[in-house]
């Protein structure tokens, strides 16, 4: 059985030696950064080509007069907006703290009013005790 198995394997390897070679896949079509790995002159030619979509985008940006200064200004504006939003969050926290403070002051005022009423009742009780003697 071992001899038959080894002969079968030898026959398979013999026939596979005459199979045509697989075609090499051009991965530079999927990953352009791989262009020119095997032939450096081929990669330089591909890098010099400009994509028509990017040309159209460049033309559209120049027609709309959108330059690096405007884009930098937009970035600065967005950063300022983010900073102001963070400050607004701090203001909302201060508003909550202020509301809590007002509630505590109102509660303290109510307590002082009750204490004043109790003091007046105690004073009246003391006065009535002193007149009863």
Written overview of the protein:
- The N and C termini lie far apart (132 Å).
- It is elongated, with a radius of gyration of 44 Å.
- It is an all-alpha fold and 133 residues long.
- 76% of the residues lie in helices and 0% in strands.
List the helices and strands and how they pair.
Layout: H1 2-16, H2 40-48, H3 52-63, H4 68-132
User: Radius of gyration, Cα only, in angstroms?
Assistant: 44 Å
Sheet with most strands: none
Share in helix: over 70%
Cα(first) to Cα(last) distance is 132 Å
How many helix segments?
4
Could you say which overall geometry the principal axes of the C-alpha atoms support?
elongated
Count all strands and give the number: 0
Strand content: under 5%
Residue stretches low in confidence (pLDDT < 50, at least 5 long) are: none
The SSE string, one letter per element, is HHHH
* Mean model confidence by pLDDT: 83
Structural class: mainly alpha
